[in-house]
Amino acid sequence: MKLSTKIEKLLNEQISLEFSASSNYLAMASWCEITGYSGAAAFFYAQSTEERDHMLKIIHYVNSLGGKSIIPSNKSPNSNFKNLENLLKTSLKNEQTVTKSIHKIVDVAIKEKDYSTNAFLEWFVNEQIQEETKFETLLQKFDLIGRDKLAINEIDKILQKESQSPE
């Protein structure tokens, strides 16, 4: 089986999106670390690694089917953040963008009757449900616990625990 040109192009775009997400999470982790949010730093470092793993999974898939993976260049991500809540809102938006992209590839795979790619992407579809739910739940903590310094400290502890729980 060989990937169609269109599917290969879309998967390479996804590789770039995963790479960008990994870089963004890395910048967020660094900001958290220097701002004193050790739990959030651990959480975002783990998120960065996870996105890199997703990118590698797609690279290996494309290569295994005789396609050519295109490794994206590194564009510096934003590193000026307002606060922890803003980071989580940005993260949710980024995950929603990734979800839309995955769904687009699935749509094309179904139209092209590329059952292998469709099956491969099923894991990513389920992963994105978990990712979006995770960030929505974390954002709810601000409404439940609050936004004062003690509340932010508690949210940082929650993020620390979240960084240690297996996916």
List the helices and strands and how they pair.
Elements: H1 5-35, H2 38-64, H3 84-111, H4 115-145, H5 149-164
Explain what you see.
The chain is mainly α. The chain has one domain (5-71, 82-164): Up-down Bundle (Ferritin). Helices cover 80% and strands 0% of the residues. It contains five helices and no strands. It has helices at 5-35, 38-64, 84-111, 115-145, 149-164. Helix 1 (5-35) runs antiparallel to helix 2 (38-64) and helix 4 runs antiparallel to helix 5 (149-164). The longest helix is centred in the first third of the chain and has 31 residues, at 5-35. The chain is elongated and about 55 Å long. The model has no long low-confidence stretch (mean pLDDT 96).
